[in-house]
Amino acid sequence: MTFEEMIGSSGEWLRGTGPEAEIVISSRVRLARNIRGFRFITKMDTAERAACEELVQRQILDAKVAQPLLYVPLHKADPMDRKVLVERHLISKEHEDAQHQRGVAIGANEAVAVMVNEEDHIRLQVLQSGFQLQEAWRICTRIDDALEQRLDYAFSPQLGYLTACPTNVGTGLRVSVMLHLPALVLTRHIEKVFQAVAKINLAVRGLYGEGTEASGHFYQISNQVSLGRSEEEIVKNVEHVIPTIVRYEHNARQTLLAKDRKRLEDRVWRAYGMLKYAQLLPSDEAMMLLSALRMGVHLGLLKDVSLRTVNELFILIQPAHLQKLTGRALEPMERDVKRAEFVRSKLNPQP
Amino acid sequence: MTFEEMIGSSGEWLRGTGPEAEIVISSRVRLARNIRGFRFITKMDTAERAACEELVQRQILDAKVAQPLLYVPLHKADPMDRKVLVERHLISKEHEDAQHQRGVAIGANEAVAVMVNEEDHIRLQVLQSGFQLQEAWRICTRIDDALEQRLDYAFSPQLGYLTACPTNVGTGLRVSVMLHLPALVLTRHIEKVFQAVAKINLAVRGLYGEGTEASGHFYQISNQVSLGRSEEEIVKNVEHVIPTIVRYEHNARQTLLAKDRKRLEDRVWRAYGMLKYAQLLPSDEAMMLLSALRMGVHLGLLKDVSLRTVNELFILIQPAHLQKLTGRALEPMERDVKRAEFVRSKLNPQP
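^ Those are the sequences you sent over. The predicted structure of the assembly is below.
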C-alpha cells in the first residue's frame, strides 16, 4: 500500500456503518507505551531517538500488526503529507510538528495506526466506524499483546505502564467516541450534555481536539483518568454514557421534526443547495452545511446522498487534502474555490 | 378571455424580450382622462359614479381598444382577484382599495389596461417588454384617439386635459421605465444614479411604487411634470436618460466580472441553489435571490434558466398570486412554504 493509495480511499471509520452510525461517527481506543532501556522522547539525544524509532518500526513490521501495513517515516515525509495524516486522525498535531526521527504505521482501512516517537515511544490507535468500543478494544489489545512479545515495555508493578506524561500512567489508555450532535446544538441542550459528562470525569473536545468545538457539530467524549482502574472499567465507563447522549440527540431530532418540520427541512435542503452550487466555500461554513446535510440524510429528509459520502467530505475538504488533491499549495481564497469544486463534484451526478 | 385564462399566462411585459431586455424590464405609458359632464370621482355620488362607469365601460368595449378584451367589474370582484391585478401592475393599489363602482379593461397579453373610475374617470396604460417607449406611446395614442371619438374628454385650451390631481393636468401623461439594476446596487453606485435622475426632474420608485425600493433591485424611472410640454417631449425626456443608466449598469456588471468573478459566480449559483431547494422562502429573500439569478442569466454564468422564467417568477411569487394558485387564503408561514414549492416546481425539471 502506498501513501497515495491510502488517501485515495477512505478510512474504515468513515464508512458510516456500525451501531448507531447516524450519531456515533467512530469509536477509538489508544494505548501509550514506552520501551525499557530508552529514556522518554524529550530526554533523548538524536542518536537515541533514531535507535528507538528503528527498533520499534522493525518490530511493528515484523509483528505484522495489520495487513497491508504502510510505514511513513514522518521526518522524511512531505510537510503536506503530514498535514493530510493529521486531518485523517492518523497522527497528532504534535507528531506532525516535531523535528526528530519518527514515523507512523498505518493498517488497512486506517483502522490501525501506530505512532512511533510521538510523546511516548509508541502510541497505538484503533478506530472503528460507529459505536464499537469493545471491538476497537479487542483489536487494540491483540496488537498490544503482539508488540509486547517483541518489545520490553516500561512497566512498574505499582504504577502500571510508564508514560512521558503522568496523566497517561497506569493503563496508558485513552478511550474516545466521536459524536455528531447537531440537534442538541439547535435545541440548545448541548451545554447540559457537557455538564453531565464533566460530572463523571469525561472530557469533551471538537473534531480535531481542543479548540475546534463548533466545527460541524462534532464532539469527542473521552476518559480523563487512566490510573487506578482496569482497562475494561475505563472502556465500560465511556461506553456506558454514550447510549444516553445518543438517545438525547435522537429525541432532539424528533422534537425538531415534530415541532418545526418545515424549518428543519428548509435548513437541510438549503444546505444541500448551497453545497451543490456554491463557487466559494469557506471551511467553517462547509462543515456546518455538511452537518445539516448529514442530519437530513439520517432523518430521511433527503435521499440522494449517502452517509458515507457526507462522512468522507468532512475529511476530504480539509486544507491539506485539498492541496494534496490539487498538487500544490493554495492560498485561502483558492482553497475556498477548490473546496466548492470538490464538493460539487461529489454531490452533482456526472454527465 | 376569462380572468383565470389571463392569470394562467403571463403578460407581454414579462416576455423578457425587446431592446435592452436584460436590464430594461418594461416600458410603460399612462394617460389620465376625464369625461365632460361628469364631476371628478371624489365629488360624485353613488349614482353618478355608476353612470360614469357604465358609459366608459360600454365605449371601451365598443371601441374594441384591444382584442381579446376582458372587463373586470372591480366592485364585484373577489378581493383576492383585485390583489392579483395589483401584483400584475394592471390596477393601482388605490383602485384595489376603493369602494365605489369601478372596473378595468385588460387587453390581450396585458399590454393594455384601462382603469375606469380610478382617481380619474379613465386611466389608460400600455406596457411593453424591454425598452420600447415609442411603441408603447404609439399604441397608447391610437387607443386614446379611438376613445376620444366616442367620449367627450374634459379639455381646456389653456390647461390641456383636466385631471383630478393638478400634477396630471396638461398631457395627463406618465411615462415610466422599469429597470433591473443589481450591479449598481452591489458596486454602491445606485445613489449616484438617483441623484442624476432627480436633477432632471425624473422620479425613482420601486417595483410596486413608492416604499418598495429595495425589492429585487427593481427601479422605475418616470416623469414628474405633465404640463407645459408636448407628449412627445415628455416621452423623449424619459427615453433620453435610459441608455445612460443601462450603460452604467452594464459597466458595473463588467466590473464585477473582471474584478471579482468568483464572488459574483458564487452569489449567482448560491441563489440558484437556494431557490431550487429551499422549503421556506420569505418574499424579500426570494426577490433578492431572483435578482441575483436574473443577472447571472444575463451574464451567461448560468444557462439552465430563461430570462422569461425569472421575470415571471418575480410576479407569480407575490402573495395574492400564491393564494390564487392555492385556492384559499394563506397564513404568512404557509405562503413561504407555497412560494418555495412553486419556485422549486419552476426550476427543477419535472420527472
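The CA atoms of residues 95 and 118 of chain A lie 5 Å apart. The longest strand of chain A covers residues 24-33.

Shout if you want it in another format.
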